[in-house]
Amino acid sequence: MTEFPAAHFRRHRFPAEIITHAVWLYFRFPLSLRDVEDLLAERGINVSFQTVSEWAAKFGLKFANQLRRRSRGQFTDKWQLDEMVVTIKGKKYWLWRAVDANGVDFH
């Protein structure tokens, strides 16, 4: 994960590690704010999706730019496309995920 100076997290209730992890989850994977809230709750961290939204708004742009900068030029020419069919209440949904040769997801 990306490092931010400690001054960025001053006056926040949660430690910097939790905030950066929540923002990283939200921007790195196709998760909703409520999904991030649930993932943190499974690890014993009680934080509302509104708080995650505020963190994403405050730290997100800088974090997303650093993720983009780090991933630039690292994608390979060969890709693997995973497809999965899920049936929910009798209706079929197709889920796809593209992964390059290094295991990097592309969303």
UniProtKB/TrEMBL annotation:
GO terms for biological process: DNA recombination; transposition. This is DDE superfamily endonuclease. Transmembrane segments: none annotated. Keywords: DNA recombination, DNA-binding, Endonuclease, Hydrolase, Nuclease, Transposition. InterPro entries: DDE_dom (IPR032874), IS_Transposase (IPR052183), Transpos_IS6 (IPR047930). Residues 77-103 form the DDE domain. It holds the Pfam family DDE_Tnp_IS240.
